[in-house]
Amino acid sequence: MHVPPIPSLTAADPELATLIESEATRQHDKLRMIASENYVSAAVLEASGTVLTNKYSEGYPGRRYYEGQQFIDPIETLAVTRARELFGVDHANVQPYSGSPANLAVYLAFLSPGDTVLGMALPMGGHLTHGWSVSATGKWFNPVRYGVSAETGRIDLDEVRDLARREHPKLIFCGGTAVPRTIDFAGFAEIAREVGAVLVADIAHIAGLVAGGAHPSPVGHADVITTTTHKTLRGPRGAMIMTTAEHASAVDKAVFPGLQGGPHNHTTAGIAVALREAGTEDFRRYAHQVVANAKALAAALVERGFTLSSGGTDNHLILADLTSKGIAGKPAAQALDRAGIELNYNTVPYDPRKPFDPSGIRLGTAALATRGLTEEQMPQVAAWMDEAVTAAVKDDEATLDRVAGEVRDLLVCYPMPGYTAD
């Protein structure tokens, strides 16, 4: 049963309520290892589902365009204060609707159309909004892209420096969507200073690890930090932009009125709750457990013959090339889902296959750690993954069904925020 309960919705729209209840059960019964997903707490769920969704609040605290902000202003101020204190930054904007609009606001704050931006190429682990061709950021600006070494699978800062010196970007992005290794923020900052560029650290995937002390922080190195508020941070689906005092006004003006209208106040409240939770010792233990689980799972997968990009992981994320397993990423991901293991197919560096049918899979351990799984369970997770991939090659649905049942049996012992058995 969904927690908090949804009796009013069940009465008003039983069809939709049934779908929501089914999704809650699905989330409970599967090993959820999509690297960008997690479970939020019941408190975040409650905050995100309140009457705050009724209120329009264009502008910023103390400078709104609508009346009736007596309680909205303190809520947003609370979220901003908690973000500043948690990450140790001068300024935070908690209004972006999601990570992509947050990054677009950075472009609007610092660039004009046609200016050069240096970012990680999407097939190498970067994000669409770091200047990839199908994104507005690749169409409206001049994108220059760096990748990873073919030998090590890691970013080569010498390559980044050479590109920056040659192309003179006004903006440099570090971070990405499939980067399994520690990001050298200090190294990127040195390059940005040398060429006079603004350094943006996109920590959407690792924000919770940074907050929990399980990954180095970009604060003090990056001029601007963007992040989503879900993923490892365990908040609602929103985003933040954090900056030095020097860039606060430009970023705020880019978010509103540059790109957005009124913020989603119910999401702001959920972000405030998540940030409070992220400042606790329990969250620090969770963040370190995420990394410990990922390292243990990566080692177990290597033992079973999986080829991992860069050979392993330093954070929550694992990127595996399934070529040696005799199957592409998409059919493997679909089979794994039927086996109760949720992840996504993904391009790997220098992938010879097309993006919609790539060679790899991407997975993460954030949600597993939230459920309470530890290193002890990771060899079994790797064994199930190996069985499921092998079964997919052989079209062996019986094995997939058996593994799914074993996954459900395991997860009964690990409570899920937002769900309880009837």
From TrEMBL:
Pathway: Amino-acid biosynthesis; glycine biosynthesis; glycine from L-serine: step 1/1; One-carbon metabolism; tetrahydrofolate interconversion. Pfam families: SHMT. Its cofactor is pyridoxal 5'-phosphate. It is found in: Cytoplasm. It catalyses: (6R)-5,10-methylene-5,6,7,8-tetrahydrofolate + glycine + H2O = (6S)-5,6,7,8-tetrahydrofolate + L-serine. (6S)-5,6,7,8-tetrahydrofolate binds at residues 122, 126-128, 246. CDD domains: SHMT. The record marks 230 as: Plays an important role in substrate specificity. Its EC number is 2.1.2.1. The modification N6-(pyridoxal phosphate)lysine is found at residue 231. Belongs to the SHMT family. Homodimer. This is Serine hydroxymethyltransferase. It comes from Plantactinospora endophytica.
